[in-house]
Amino acid sequence: MHATFPSLPGIAWPVTKRPITATRVEAHASGREVRSPLYPAALYEFTLPVEGLTPDGSFPGLGTASLQALLSLYIQCRGTWGTFLFTDPTDGVATNQALAAGDGTTTAFPFARTLGGLTETVGWVTAVSRVTVAGVTQAGGWSLTAPNLLTFATAPAVGAVIAADFTYAFPCRFMDDGVDFEHLMQGLWAVKSLRFRSIAP
Q1: Sign of CA dihedral 126, 108, 120, 20
Q2: Helix (H) or strand (E) holding 108
Q3: Where are the alpha helices (H) located in the chain, listed in sequence order?
Q4: Where do the DUF2460 domain residues begin and end (predicted)?
């Protein structure tokens, strides 16, 4: 079970989200290259400036114990070692997302989300509110298998499109084994740069 990244009202701008990939490139004497992708899908690096954290609610807009929430997550993860779930407020909800078409035998389908012209598997599904098969809402007969599989008790029919409404998060780890928590004034702390990256689930 992953820890969850806390809600931090003091997160400031700019927030960066950087897709990262890895490719093995081998050059030949002819000048041609052979390129092999090493990751099956992109991973993401996040950088958040947190301008306001409070230990005691001195600044009501920052929560009641936001300093403790972030500090305890970082210590619990032991820096780069442990993992947590981060919900990106701009990339965490899918509505009527087509997942696959049934073949009459397959019962488990990975959750995915469409981003422009790309459809990729999501890292960790946090909740499923609706599942349809061939456009018909399924009241039961399915379950969420962590981290990201939709499992049916009976295989959907051949050609039946499977879709779902769901929320998802990114399994992540911190990128640094040390983070500076700055005490700016009584009751107010900050972290200039909090860096973490997604990992394969």
Answers
A1: positive
A2: strand 108-110
A3: 66-77
A4: 5-199
Cα angle for residues 3, 185, 65 (degrees, 5° grid):
25
Instruction: Measure the CA–CA gap between 77 and 172, rounded to whole angstroms.
Output: 10
Q: What confidence tens digit (pLDDT) does each residue in 54-73 have?
A: 999 999 899 999 999 999 99
Instruction: Say if residue 148's pLDDT is above 70.
Output: yes
The pLDDT of residue 176 is above 70: yes
Buried b (16+ CB within 10 A) or exposed e, 59-95: beebbebbbebbbebbeebeeeebbbbbbbeeebbbe
Pick from 63, 64, 62, 86: which is nearest to 74 by CA? 86
3-class DSSP state of 151:
strand
pTM greater than the 0.90 cutoff: yes
Matching residue, tokens 């073949």: 103
Strand-pair partners of 112: 121
- In sequence order, the 6+-apart residues with CB closer than 8 A to the CB of 100 are 106, 109, 161, 162
pLDDT band at residue 1 using 50, 70 and 90 as cut-offs = low
> What residues form DSSP beta bridges with 161?
101
Residue pair 165/97 in contact by the 8 Å Cβ criterion: yes
Spatial contact of 190 and 53, defined as CB atoms under 8 Å apart: yes
Cβ-in-10-Å burial (0-12, 13-18, 19+) of 48 comes to buried
